[in-house]
Design goal:
The protein has about 220 residues and is mainly α. The protein has one domain. Helices cover about 80% and strands about 0% of the residues.
């Protein structure tokens, strides 16, 4: 059982790492180059001038969130013996968050192909708002996972604490955007909290899970 759990944990770590690595291609590389906040006309012009890059971003987006779904499934397999209800909540939030941001990506694609700049602006704004609501889900799906870590002896509680910091980062991103309208990058402390996910990824890939006697 331990050998099986270690393999499942490392598979989850690989899916998580792929999600972390692929995501920036869509959000930072492609969106960072093409999207001009508050200027739908410039954004559409950029997309029309860089069609291949735009669709590369869409492909990276789909690939990244496919990895995210497989990550959720692997974690469910690992923690189901601990509490099956919590794993159902976890995968439910993973799927709901993915469906939400997929709707935002569809809105972006529609905006790039619609004739009216006014409608395009509305769709781009919708996409931005959906992405920030997504931050709420990226914090919430970690909560059942953190509880499962603390209820089990599979992963050190310190790693669960690091993951709790990451959850707070995502929830703070959601709150800061909708309450203060400030970019989260302006708050270095919050950005540091977000590194907690890397702690979890590294533990899953390098250590896998603990033996009972290590708990």
């Amino acid at each position: 059982m331990l050998k099986t759990n270690k393999k499942t944990a490392r598979i989850a770590g690989v899916w998580w790492l792929l999600f972390i690595l692929i995501g920036p291609v869509s959000y930072l590389v492609v969106d960072g180059k093409l999207l001009v906040p508050g200027d739908a006309a410039a954004t559409v012009s950029n997309i029309n001038s860089n069609t291949a890059l735009f669709w590369l971003g869409v492909a990276a987006f789909l690939a990244g969130y496919t990895c995210f779904i497989f990550l959720g499934k692997a974690l469910c397999k690992l923690f189901k013996p601990v509490n099956s209800k919590l794993t159902k909540w976890m995968i439910g939030l993973v799927i709901a968050g993915t469906a939400l941001v997929l709707a935002g990506k569809i809105a972006e694609i529609a905006a790039a192909n619609i004739g009216s700049m006014e409608d395009a602006a509305c769709l781009f704004d919708l996409r931005t708002n959906i992405e920030m609501v997504g931050e709420l889900f990226w914090g919430l799906w970690l909560i059942p996972l953190i509880i499962l870590i603390f209820k089990s002896n599979l992963i050190p509680k310190a790693v669960g604490g690091a993951l709790l910091a990451a959850a707070l980062y995502h929830l703070a991103s959601f709150a800061v955007f909708f309450i203060g309208g400030t970019d989260i990058s302006a708050h270095p402390v919050l950005v540091i909290l977000g590194l907690g996910e890397f702690v979890m990824v590294l533990w899953l890939m390098i250590k896998g899970v603990k033996k009972d006697k290590e708990s």
